[in-house]
Specification:
flat; about 400 residues; alpha+beta; 13 helices
Length: about 400
């Protein structure tokens, strides 16, 4: 039997040990996200820190419930950093985990109520308890917070506990996935249909829209259109388009799309350093031959960023990644525009002002086969899963 030591997103000092069931033993590795039971009724997303064969003694070992990903969410370097931060700042690994990983990648257990027997008598229950039972019988399993909101019951927990104690309902914990991939709905002509006009029949407006799409497509089966733009672009309502979709002459499908860096391209020509900048660049490289830290001092607008850009380009050419740290979010906008002009969609931006889903998507992209070469961000960006960080 193998056992996994995991860190939970809680302010607890210890790592916790769980057994790895045989059916998932080949899927669990260091850095993977796993769902584990904790306490009597809670489930959390834990990160595997270590795997071993040493069975703990003195207490009952719970098993990992499931594995979330086919790849590690956190790499070995990140785990090493978390451990150091925990020691240096005298905090728990769980607190570091909570601060480091985007909220959307931490699944949580939420308490639901479910009716055990829909035919049970409601005799003896209070009016509020009857109200809750009728709601659950009509709607099925529901989250306690939703029941409270829908029925306008402020202090619902005593009634919920009473119903559980009476054996009429049970508490169910469901793990909620927060991260939602962004999707777009596309439409395109169905070229497998030979006589679309016969299928369309006498629907004049549908025929007009079909003819417009044929003209724009020019026989290219790869041409597609955003469904939401058909009305704005061609002046035909969604109901007319739906008619073509229902008849099968237009195909509709949903595709996952990225939230980050849409259509960013390189737009700046090479910049020639002046004499002072060139001297600073050469001295920085000389320092790096002996040390891994160098201080570049210069007043505002003295040209430091251009020196940074050349150092970044050198690292990128060697297949390494670069983190461009700024002290506050307000400074990122101007610097982002300058860096995007040089690095295009190879630049990622990471800070607290971007939404939770976008931060989660950036995290996942950094683990992919095509991560960002350069990331600009504030302090939280040090936690990203860099694969080959060459320069900060």
């Amino acid at each position: 039997m193998l056992y996994a030591e995991v860190v939970l997103p809680l302010a607890l000092d210890n790592l916790f040990t769980y057994s790895i069931p045989d059916n998932i033993v080949d899927k669990v590795g260091v850095g993977h996200r796993v769902i584990v039971p904790f306490g009597r009724r809670k489930f959390y997303t834990a990160i595997v820190i270590n795997i071993h064969e040493n069975k703990p003694e003195g207490y009952e070992i719970k098993a990992i419930d499931s594995v979330i990903d086919a790849f590690p969410l956190v790499n070995a370097q990140q785990i090493k950093l978390w451990s150091w931060l925990s020691f240096y700042y005298m905090c728990s690994m769980g607190e570091v985990y909570t601060a480091a990983v985007p909220a959307q990648l931490k699944l949580e257990s939420e308490t639901f109520l479910s009716v055990l027997d829909s035919t049970s008598s409601l005799e003896g229950l209070t009016p509020i308890e009857i109200k809750i039972m009728n709601f659950l019988r009509e709607k099925g399993t529901q989250k306690i917070s939703l029941i409270s909101k829908e029925l306008k019951i402020k202090d619902i927990l005593p009634y919920a506990h009473s119903l559980v104690y009476s054996g009429l309902v049970e508490i169910v914990d469901q793990v909620i996935e927060r991260y939602k991939p962004k999707t777009e709905v596309y439409v395109k002509l169905n070229f497998d249909i030979e006589d679309a006009s016969t299928i369309i029949g006498k629907a004049t407006k549908q025929q007009e829209l079909y003819d417009v799409l044929c003209e724009v497509t020019k026989g290219d089966a790869g041409v597609r259109f955003l469904r939401s733009e058909i009305d704005k672009r061609f002046g035909y309502s969604s109901s007319i388009l739906k008619g073509l979709i229902d008849k099968g002459v237009v195909l509709q499908y949903t595709e996952e799309v990225s939230r980050i860096n849409p259509n960013v391209s390189i737009s700046r020509k090479a910049y020639l350093l002046n004499g002072y900048q060139q001297k600073a660049l050469e001295e920085i490289k000389n320092v790096f031959e002996e040390k891994n830290v160098c201080l570049l001092h210069g007043v505002t607008s003295s040209g430091k960023t251009e020196v940074y850009i050349l150092l970044i380009q050198e690292q990128v050419r060697m297949g390494r990644q670069v983190l461009f740290l700024v002290p506050e979010i307000a400074l990122t906008t101007q610097l982002t525009l300058r860096l995007q002009a040089v690095f295009g969609d190879k630049l990622g931006v990471y800070h607290s002002m971007i939404n939770d889903n976008e931060r989660a998507e950036i995290w996942i992209k950094m683990q992919s086969d095509e991560p960002f070469d350069v990331v600009i961000g504030v302090r939280s960006s040090i936690f990203l899963p860099y694969q080959s960080l060459g320069l900060v």
